[in-house]
Design goal:
By secondary structure, this protein is mainly α. The protein has one domain (11-443): Hydantoin permease (Orthogonal Bundle), CATH 1.10.4160. The protein has 19 helices and no strands. The longest helix has 34 residues, at 307-340. The N and C termini lie far apart (48 Å). The structure holds tryptophan (TRP). Tryptophan (TRP) is lined by residues 21-22, 24-27, 100, 223-224, 226, 229, 231, 325, 328-329, 382.
Length: 444
């Protein structure tokens, strides 16, 4: 049944697809609002630490599990550890995928709404940006409509197949988005008064230390890298035998972090520069709130010549970046149903679509439900999944299989020290750090 699986066609396609999954609203919407919430630079430091010490090793581990088994995220554990309970890790991942989509699709809907506002020119007539955003999130039906539209758009790509859908769209939009972010970052930096925002981003302030900061940063790292639920297992299962797993994990993580930091450099300097009262802005920032991106950016566009063009381009690309992420999430859950329950791909997609829409309606109508889905996935389910994945590859899997995957049966030359560091991070650092942060975050 799994013998005739397709694989991604080209090397650039592999990186683009995995980066397309990782780069999304997590970087451009969630990262700034979490950073604001946690007081800035200190959060970013811990976040980068999480990426280096267990994010990258975990992404490699998911690739190993995926390509080592060529199966969906639950089937992978079946194949590599037959007759054991490890399959529950895969199943937990499938559930996590549902939970993430249950709120993520709503934010995707916001991007569509803003894209529409932008294209019709209405966004550029707005004078009260906060009120404009609040009128959207105060209107459950409007949110539901966009959310359903976005979910159906993703399912269209899932049905149309792996290569055409995911690979092509990622390859084209990622570089354009990247370029646009650089332009916007430059614009933001040249606003008068922007330096306060840069300081907020890059000068750690110990008074901002909160007990939950570590858990917040870890959750954001997992969420942004798309790890801990089997997404990279599923994508790894499409890699070809020459894909260099280490290099891919490094490239994807680097790109992902770069986009998040760029988003920060766009949002914070302009947020600080565009209000004349720094006290108000600090309060608003620290209160965080999901609106940061949707409130600050339209104001930034309206400071630029051709605001209609920049605004429309940005929200179109943002929706596309979100789409490549939802495709990856949906793929995990759909492939699981397709392969484990032997339902046709179309039927599986339909089932998933209905489930996600139901959860999305919950999140549109209740911000408590929305926050619960966000919190449960990023701060509980993903770290838990990551913990088990590190234990699985570090302790359970045959070391020869791990090394054969990392070195492509010996054809990729990696230093012994590198492999030792990788295994050490996976066996000891990742599980202990995840556990420690988890417990500290819950107690604190
Ligand atoms: N990483 C994506 C983002 O930053 C979201 C995402 C896609 C994700 N697939 C995932 C998050 C798997 C966690 C797990 O927007």
């Amino acid at each position: 049944m799994t013998e005739k699986r397709v694989t991604f066609a080209s090397k650039i396609g592999i990186v683009a697809a995995a980066a397309g999954s990782a780069v999304g609203l997590g970087n451009i919407w969630r990262f700034p609002s979490q950073t604001a919430d946690s007081g800035g630079a200190l959060f970013i430091l811990v976040y980068i630490g999480c990426i280096l010490f267990f994010g990258i090793p975990l992404m490699m581990s998911e690739f190993i599990i995926g390509r080592g088994s060529r199966a969906n995220s639950a089937g992978a554990f079946h194949k590599l550890a037959p007759g054991t309970q490890w399959k529950w890790v895969g199943r937990l991942g499938v559930l996590t995928g549902f939970v993430i989509m249950g709120f993520y699709m709503v934010v995707c809907g916001w991007t569509l709404d803003y894209m529409f506002q932008s294209l019709t020119g209405n966004l550029h007539k707005v004078t009260d940006y906060t009120a404009n955003f609040n009128s959207l999130i105060g209107n459950p039906l409007r949110q539901t409509g966009w959310m359903i539209l976005f979910t159906m758009l993703s399912s269209f790509f899932i049905i149309s197949g792996v290569k055409k859908g995911i690979e092509q769209s990622s390859k084209i939009m990622m570089p354009i988005l990247f370029l646009l972010l650089i332009i916007l970052a430059l614009r933001s930096l040249f606003l008068e008064g922007s330096s306060a925002g840069l300081l907020f981003l890059f000068r750690p302030d110990p008074t901002h230390l909160k007990p939950t900061l570590f858990l917040d940063a870890m959750g954001q790292a997992f969420f942004s890298l798309s790890i801990g639920m089997g997404c990279m297992i599923t994508y790894g299962s499409y890699f070809n035998k020459n894909t260099n797993l280490t290099q891919t994990a490094l490239q994807v993580s680097f790109l992902d972090s770069l986009v998040a930091i760029l988003a920060g450099i766009i949002i914070f300097p302009s947020a600080f520069a565009l209000t004349n009262n720094p006290d108000v802005i600090t309060q608003e920032l620290v209160a965080g709130g999901p609106g940061l991106l949707f409130i600050t950016l339209p104001e930034l566009f309206n400071q630029m010549p051709l605001s209609f063009f920049w605004g429309s381009l940005f929200f179109c690309l943002l929706a596309l970046a979100a789409l490549t992420s939802t495709i990856s999430l949906m793929e995990v859950v759909t492939l699981y149903i397709h392969e484990e329950y032997h339902l046709p791909r179309k039927k599986s997609t339909l089932l998933v679509t209905v489930g996600v829409i139901l959860l999305g309606i919950g999140s549109s109508f209740s911000s408590d439900f929305f926050n619960l889905m966000d919190l449960a996935s990023a701060k509980v389910m993903l770290p838990l999944g990551g913990l088990f994945i590190s234990l699985f590859v570090g302790w359970y899997l045959d070391r020869r299989l791990v090394i054969a995957q990392v070195t492509n049966e010996g054809s990729v030359k990696l230093g012994v020290t590198f492999l030792k560091v990788y295994i050490f991070l996976l066996r000891y650092i990742a599980p202990l750090a995840i556990l420690a942060i988890f417990i500290y975050g819950l107690v604190g």
